[in-house]
Amino acid sequence: MVSEPEPAGLPHPLPGAIGLSHLSAYDWEAADGVCGGSPHLHLVCTEAYVVTGGRGAVQTLSPDGYREIPLEAGSLAWFTPGTVHRMVQGGDLRITVLMQNSGLPEAGDAVFTFPPEVLADPDRYAAAAALPPGTGPETAAAARRRRDLAVEGYLGLREALVAGDNGPYLEFQRAAARIVRDKVPTWQALWREGALATAERTGAQLDALAAGDPAYLGGATAHEAAPTRLGGFGMCGRRDEYTLPGTTLPYQGE
User: Fold this and answer.
1) Mind telling me which InterPro entries this protein's record contains (predicted)?
2) What is the pLDDT of residues 48-101, one digit of tens each?
3) Spatial separation of the C-alpha atoms in residues 64 and 147, rounded to whole Å
């Protein structure tokens, strides 16, 4: 009995073709007196926080309103595409982040809650979102300015939503979709090579088992990796990254 060829895709994806990183939430105080990260949303990826230490919260804006979900060691929170989220530092908050669709978040599947006038100008948005390379003081200062600008827009969205006006929130979603539209063909290719190919590989394996042909198990092996960049500046905090295809390469969305 001859095995069917397995679908092409990422060479060694993590389970479910997820993305992975580790975050220490920013302890910079924002204009509202809260310490934490840059509010943003994802367009096609669900994100999960697995809390490994400390305490804090994640603030979210969605069609069901404003929420603040407490975070402590052992807790788990996740949010679907379109949910604005802001990580809040409460004391040494450390999180392992799991991202749907492997490499899509690093391909720009995230939009900051900058004020409307910034969102309306693609060049201005790109300049505000960009960071200098490296992990030094210049990059830290730029990351903090970016965070502050995102909080400025976020506070307006939150105020309106709490008051029962979801118009600004919905307009932000529409603006975010306009900003990323040109990236969609690249995302489609990454999705096919990552999450879709991984699911299809499972389908091929199930077909082989149903046919009584476990020959694909002859390729069984193990892999290992360690973080390859420590303390990078992410949206929510200092980030440890893995240089694995489709996992968590340095963010390329600016």
Assistant:
1) RmlC-like_jellyroll, RmlC_Cupin_sf
2) 999 999 999 999 999 999 999 999 999 999 999 999 999 999 999 999 999 999
3) 25
The runs of H, that is alpha helices, within the chain are 116-119, 122-129, 137-162, 167-180, 184-191, 197-210
pLDDT digits (tens, 9 = 90+) for 105-139: 778 899 999 999 999 999 999 999 999 988 899 99
- DSSP character for 244? S
Q: Do 229 and 87 form a contact (C-beta atoms < 8 A)?
A: no
CA distances from 7 to 44, 124, 158, 165, 205 (A): 23, 41, 44, 47, 10
Q: What are the structure tokens assigned to 141, written together?
A: 């200062």
* Token pair recorded at residue 118: 């910034």
Tally Cβ neighbours within 10 Å of residue 87. Answer: 26
Name which of 54, 119, 60 is nearest 90 in CA terms: 54
User: The whole model's pTM is what?
Assistant: 0.91
Distance of CA 6 to the CA centre of its chain: 29
Q: Which tokens sit at 46?
A: 């669900």
Tally the residues of the chain: 254
Answer yes or no: are the C-beta atoms of 60 and 67 closer than 8 Å. Answer: yes
Report residue 184 CA to chain centroid gap. Answer: 16
Please tell me whether residue 234 adopts helix, strand or coil conformation: coil
Contact between residue 121 and residue 129 where contact means Cβ atoms under 8 Å apart: no
Residue 42 CA to its chain's centroid (Å): 7
How many Cβ atoms are within 10 Å of 60's Cβ, its own excluded? 20
Cβ 11 vs Cβ 245: under 8 Å: yes
